[in-house]
Structure formats: structure tokens, C-alpha cells
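hiii so my PI (J.) wants the whole complex modelled not just the main chain, which honestly fair. so below is everything: two entries, each one labled with what it is. i double checked the lines twice but i was tired so who knows lol
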Amino acid sequence: MLAIEIKSLTKEYAVGFWKKKRRPALKSLNLTVETGETFGFLGPNGAGKTTTLKLLMGIIFPTSGSATILGKDFLDPDVKRRIGFLPEQPYFYDYLSAPELLDYYAQLSGVAADVRKQRIGELLGRVGLSDVGSKQLRKFSKGMLQRVGIAQAIIHDPEVVFLDEPMSGLDPVGRHEVRELIQSLKDAGKTIFFSTHILSDAEALCDRVAVIHKGELRGVGVVNDFRSSLAEKTEVIWLGANALSTVNSLLAEVHVTADTVRGTVQSGDLDRLLEKLRQQGARLISVTPVHRTLEDYFLSKTKEEEKEAVTL
Amino acid sequence: MTSRLSAITWNTFREAVRDRILYNLVLFVLLLVASAPLFSQISIGLEKLMLVNVGLSSISLFGVIIAIFVGIGLVSKEIEKKTLYTMLSRPVRRWEFIAGKYLGLLLTLVVNTALMTVGFHVALLIFINRLKSADAMLLVAVYFIVLQFMMMVAITLLFSTFSTPIFSAIFAFALYVIGTFGEDLKNFAAISQGVTKWLAMGAAYVMPNFASLNVISQAAHEQSVSSGLILSNTVYALLYSLAVTVAAVMVFERRNLK
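here's the output for the full assembly
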């Protein structure tokens, strides 16, 4: 079943003094996300990621197109009871304490009073904020606010969670903690749609990714395909720089440090290279297939236009 | 719906309290105490007249200032600080947000006015020694002041949905000043001719009329206010506030938030 279905979603802003010019922020986006999937929405800054999320949350209205979440129109109040949202760099009512904020949002999402009390305590523990007490949010650090942000997004136990740049601005420890939290949501079977420009996060967490650039969808890929695809190249490291002259013609790239050689070979030439190294008495250290990474995919999708422009 | 509405109302009230809005009560008390030496130098009859005028005018002025300066930020601050993002991603309808904000600020003003009224009556007891049944008119005057607040909150909320806080404050204050001369506008319409008459008449109906809601002078002179005026003022304030709040909802319903 589809958790999210976006059809030709378009957003244009009127610009200029007379508001007659149209600046497209999102160009006819078509996208589907399966239930239980963790979907990464990738793109450089200003690509249209936040615009898409703001449209889906009803913060701005589309110029054309439509979307459904859990089979219903995305603006249906019933849908909003079943989704959670963490905005980019969240700002909350800073005169409230974390339990007060969570209680307020849970109430708005229709969570019963007795359930609220139990869930607030449980969630604060889960995001590592069980000891904050009645401290107002204005005294929280950025990392603590991000954790409150995740807690408010899931306080009502939503089926689909939208996260806009959940790791942005966090230190390595904070990023690790947020990553763990997202992983736990994934393990709990939630559908997660998160936008990011940090590819390692997407690679670690996502089942599928979409790349958006300049408001346009450039491609959708399965992350596992990058990992399981047959490697086109293999990296070989050995001790014995004197063998280099014999095998140099087989290597695509080579780096030598003292007596250690690190060379990259086309996978088809691997057997011949290993045979020659054995004959030369070189000591093999490692043989590692070089897979195509998410970064390669991302760069190929975001640079397509530039290449086309150069060709023209 | 009622649960969401009451949650937004309560949170708006809580914000005002934590932002120390109610500290104006201290100023109010200081104002009354500071005027005390003046009262004691005036003869008995005028002493009360002055105290009632100062007390009720202060209640009105403090409330209008709160209505304007808190009201202008009710929506615009939420847009600017992006707190609306997490709000609108929940099953909160935009009209519920506006209605909750309206009721929250009105609740703040009602509580503020109630506390000031208690303080004002204590001051009356201290300086005049006893209250008479005619002093019930003072409560009618306070009630009319609250009706003014209902209208002012709706007006500032409307501006807050589409304008910046500075312009909202200027517009709202201008409307308040025009509103205090509401009766003059009507009188001008009555003596005018042709297009001017229609324009003045239109303006008199569109602009708030706070003049008929000001009975401070009558209350100070212990003159009674007819039940007809109480009823018509109540209906007028309710309808005016409702119309302006509906306008605020209509603007906000269509607004793309940055």
C-alpha cells in the first residue's frame, strides 16, 4: 500500500514588483512512497525539498497537482492525526517546558489526557531528556531542541513521519543520537520521509532515495542496489613497489607510499593483475570491490544538467 | 474541535502570563497610589469623581495597549518564528487557530481587567470609605470597556494575519482613535449631502464605534445607563468582533506561509 502519492505537484511564486513573473519552486513532482519504507529526499540547498514538505503539511498551497497520504487527500484533518512533522531548524514556544510543549501538541493531535501523561514521560526518556524537568525551552541547546522536535513529531504515535533535515546543525554525537532515533522508528514499522543533503545519513537509513535539483525530480533509486550491484572496479593493495612496472598497464589509478601500492583495476582485469603480482612475489594486503556509492548517484543526477549545458 | 480550541486559547493566555503581561497590574496600582495625594487635596465629591475617571480610564488604556501590542504579534510572530509549521501539520484547522488566538488574548484581557477592577474597588473603599448601590454603574462601565477590548483584539488580529507588527500597530491605533470619535463620524454623515454623506455613512459603519462604549463620565457622575444601551452595545460589539474575526480567518485561510 502507498503511504504517500504525489501527483504533478507544482509550486510557483509570483515575483517582481507587479507579481507578474512566475518563479517555479517545484516542477510537476511525481513520487510514491510505500508503507513502512524509509525514503530519503535528497538535494542540494534550495533544491525544493522544504517546499515539498511545506506543501504536504499544508503550510503553503500548491499551484497545481495533488497528493494523498495514507490514501486520503493530504489536507484532510484525519490524515494530519496520523502524520508527524519535524521542520528544519525547529523553533518551539520557548516559554514552555518540554513536557508542557509535548502535552500541548498531543492535545492538538487528539491524544487522551491519561495517554498523554504516560507517553510524555516515555518519550522524553527515549530522546534522552528525562531530566529536563520544568526548564523552559529557551534554555535548551540546539541538540536538545532537535530531540524535542523529534519527540513532538511522534508524540501522537503517527504512522508516517516527515523529517526536514533532521541532522542539520548537530554535532557528531547529536547526529548519531538522531540517527538512532530514526532507526528505532524504522524498526517500529513507521513510514519515514526525510529530506537531507547529508548523503551518509541517507545511505545508512533509507530504503529508497529520490534526488531533486532546481525543483525537478532527477531520479529515484533503491539504496541496496548501490551496495549489491557488481563492482565495476576493484581496489588492490600490496607490498612490493618493484612489481609496479609489470602491472602498471592494467591499473586505472595508482598511489604509492613507500613500499605500499594502492591500485584500482577494472574488475575484468583483476585475475590477470593478481596472477602477475604473485609471479613478482608481491605481498597482497587487501582486495576490495569499489561499489557505486549514493554520492556517485547523487552527483550524476545533480550534474546532468551542467553536462548537457556544456554539450550544447 | 473544542479541545483544540481550548488548548490554543489556554496556551495563548499562558504565553501572555509568562511574557509578564500581567505586570501592568503593578503599574496600575502604582498609578492609583501615586494619584492618592492629589485626591486628598480635593473636596469629597470631586475626590471620587477623579478616582473613578483615573481608575476606569487606566483600565481602558492599559487594556487597549495590551490588545494592540500583544494582538499584532498573535499570528505574525508565529509565522516569523515558524511555530506555525508544527501547528498546521496537526489536525488544527486554520480558523481554529485564529479563534483560539482571539479567545486567548481576550481571556488575558478579561483576567487583567477583573484584577484591575478589584484593585480599583479596593482603592474606592480606601479613599471614599463606602460603596453605594449606584456604584454598580462602575461595573457597567467596566463591562463596556471589555466590549471595546473584544473589538480591538479582533482588529489587531486581522492586521496580524497580513501585515508586519509595526504597520499592524499603526493601523490598529489609528482605528482606535477613529473609533473614539465614532459618534462624530455619524453626526457628520447626518449633516452631509450627496457622495460625502454616503462615504461618511459607509465609514461610520465600517469603522469601530467606541464612543457609545465609553460611559466612564456617566459612571463617575453616578448617572444610570439604560438596559437598551447595554443590550445594543453588546450586540454591536459581538457582531463587529465576529465580522472582523471572520475577515481574519478568510485572509489566513488563503495565506501561503513563508
